[in-house]
């Protein structure tokens, strides 16, 4: 893979160099066009040929740098250094030639944003101090020999153009910062989603369920409201995997997740507890209401025709919040109810209150 291919693969809005490369190319094209026009202007109208030649030389250097970066996009760092040096030389030459007239020193203000954006904080600081400081020192030493000059149209033009260039660069930098923040925010949300989502079913995973259960119990205690948990397990799922294969088993888990979503309330937290077990945390749901909800789920699963015309059933255990409950005690009772449902023939719902009514094995 050549350098062009490697660079193009990484040159995306998510790549740290993306905006820097955009800025570099925009700056090179602006230099190319601007100095071509200035050269023609000075050559034709002002008859200042040596300045025109200097402008055209800068345009030629811009073409060379554009071609260099186009051929070797992996060398952004070196091209950036070359641009920074060319800009410094052009600014220095302009200040010397103008001898401080027409507010020429204002162009020194555009150098720091350029070098900071292209080379980063460390070199941006060093070169900004060197170039701006050098320009000011030169101006201070040379000012006594300069002739007084009036504020002319060229003075106003220099101020307007320098401010326009400065505003444009600062806008680009702010846009880059804003887009980087937006990308980091989206990336953070994506990572958070991955961290709490079961990759197979798209339901929340056990980590999220643990957190939701903890928050739900806190809310139930503080607001003295009902909370129930329903844990369900697919009956004889191992047989499905052994008979049809794990890929079919995975498809059934995905379809089961869709069935469960369709038969739960919007306020419920539904997730994959592990393997073929699923957990439903139902806030503001009493034990009788949870039993009705569990039965609704059980009948919906039994009636659904899964992949490859397979039918499955589920067993469900229901437990409801008590004042002295923590996560472990509540889930322990729900597990006991689930085990009782399996021991009672499967494809049924057992609540914790019904455990005492069942005969021991």
Radius of gyration: 36 Å
Order of helices and strands: HHHHHHHHEHHEEHEHE
Tell me the structural class. alpha+beta
Question: What is the mean predicted local confidence, pLDDT?
Answer: 86
Number of helices: 12
CA(first)-CA(last) distance? 68 Å
How much of the polypeptide forms β-strand, as a percent range? 5-15%
Strands side by side in the biggest sheet: 2-3-1-4-5
- Please tally the β strands and state the result: 5
Multimeric organization: single chain
Low-confidence stretches: 1-10
Principal-axes geometry comes out as elongated
How is the main sheet built? 5 strands, mixed
Question: Roughly how much helix do the residues carry, as a percent range?
Answer: 55-70%
Q: In the residues, how many domains can be counted?
A: 2
